[in-house]
Amino acid sequence: MTAKTKKIEKSNIKNQNCGVPASRDDFLNFAFCVLHFYFPVFLASVLCLAVTAGCQKADEKAQLLMEIEQLKEQNSELSSRAEKSESQNEDLQNRVRVLAALPDDVKGENLYTLNQVRIGRYTGFYDKNNNDDIQDTLIVYVQPLDDQLDKIKASGTVEIELWDLDKPDGQAKLKTWKIEPDELRALWYATMLTINYRLTLDIADIVKDFDKPYTVKMKFTDYLSGKIFEAQRIIKN
Ligand SMILES: [Ca+2]
């Protein structure tokens, strides 16, 4: 056997086993072997990895969406709590402000407990100017009551609103008056029958038709407790 024959046999053996090439022909055979047998496996592996990566991305997106929804719910709940706390804080600050503004001789003694505030039954329209039988004044009787329903001269701010509920929204409230504590104190009014605050309010240019009912709404802010008491009454001739 010649040397050339031995080389060919050696090359065929390596080609059959896909071994390491020892010459250019062997190298070509080796490359063909790699492309033919290993490249499909390599390609399949790449595709599998790509599919797996795609699935992972889809899972990550779903997880992120779920976390975003959870954060939205938490944010909404926290906003609601913050709003409630802000309202409570404002209420407490109002009470502190009211208590701090009390005169020193009132803070420690003569303290009352305001239970409710009523609008007196004689509240209505009266002719107080010119005696021309044309009603020009709204008189509102405000009655602060303690726990025993006794009338007490509670200090505070009074807001009065006059409403014509037959009118559409936005036009039904005809007028608002606000009476501060100093002014209110001077309006404490006693008769043979009762005692209460007596508010005299000008309605000459506000009410023209006296044949229909009107509604008086009252808001009393008690300066001792900071609490707000509300009442309303229908008035008609
Ligand atoms: Ca009059």
Which residues sit in consecutive blocks of at least 5 with pLDDT less than 50?
Answer: 1-21
Mean pLDDT: 83
Work out the helix count: 4
Radius of gyration from CA coordinates: 46 Å
What is the domain tally?
2
Largest sheet: 5 strands, antiparallel
CATH class of the largest domain: Mainly Beta
Beginning-to-end CA distance, first to last residue: 141 Å
The CATH topology of the largest domain corresponds to Immunoglobulin-like
Q: Roughly what fraction of the amino acids lie in strands?
A: 25-35%
Order of helices and strands: HHHEEEEEHEEEE
State the share of residues found in helices, binned by percent: 40-55%
Structural class: alpha+beta
Shape: elongated
Question: What compounds sit in this structure?
Answer: calcium ion
- Strand tally: 9
CATH architecture of the largest domain: Sandwich
3D architecture notes:
With 237 residues, the protein is of the alpha+beta class. It folds into two domains: 100 residues; 124 residues, Immunoglobulin-like, CATH 2.60.40.1940. Helices cover 43% and strands 26% of the residues. The protein is built from four helices and nine strands; from the N terminus they run αααβββββαββββ. The strands form two sheets. Strands 1, 2, 3, 6 and 7 form a five-stranded antiparallel β-sheet that branches. Strands 5-4-8-9 form a four-stranded antiparallel β-sheet. A hairpin with a 4-residue loop joins strand 6 and strand 7. Helix 1 packs parallel to helix 2. The longest helix is centred in the N-terminal third of the chain and has 77 residues. It is elongated. The N terminus is likely disordered. The site of calcium ion has 6 residues, from loops.
